[in-house]
Amino acid sequence: MVSNHFTTLNLPESLILESGDIDASWREKTKDEESGDLHEARATLADPVRRLEHWLFLRKVEPPRGSSMAPPMMDLFSQIHGVLAETDAVITKMKSATTALMRAVMTKSAVQAQLKLQGCMQKIQQEKAERLDRFPEFEKKGNGGEFTEAVEVLGQLKFLRKWEQQCQERLLSLLEF
């Protein structure tokens, strides 16, 4: 059974929490007891995507599995997927470069790939910020029993998080050379 992470840290069941408040509550609670529940509560509430998911769970709202992507998200996915594929090709070539000269020749491609990945990450950050800014709206609607938009945005945030992780992984791979 999943505990109520808000209650665990003595915080209000709100989507709108400051990271400083989460950390302060966690520090205060860990003075008296050391518990995996406290660490899990902190990790869940500190991550806005996990916080939204937990908030919905507590309201017995289960997001549908395998939801489809809205057209604007598909467009973003297409852009990111293209950059990831290009970057993978650069990484493959760099791995097969056996001489310093070959690696030097690949440097321009690697830098271009890094810049494209950083551009994707900026877009992802903007998209995430737009959705996170809607948390007060979701909370207000949730008080009236309306969760449709919150569920939809949760799915979008999960996609954005996955794409962000993929971009970060590729950036790290490029930096290894």
Task: List its salient traits.
177 residues, mainly alpha, 2 domains, 77% helix
Could you explain how this protein is built, in words?
This protein is mostly helical. The protein has two domains: 42 residues, no CATH class; 105 residues. The protein contains eight helices and no strands. It is globular, with a radius of gyration of 20 Å. The model has no long low-confidence stretch (mean pLDDT 93).
Question: What's a concise summary of this model?
Answer:
The protein has 177 residues and is mainly α. Helix content is 77%, strand content 0%.
Topology:
Blueprint: H1 5-8, H2 19-32, H3 36-46, H4 48-58, H5 71-96, H6 100-132, H7 135-143, H8 148-175
Helix pairs in contact: 2-3, 3-4, 4-8, 5-6, 5-8, 6-8
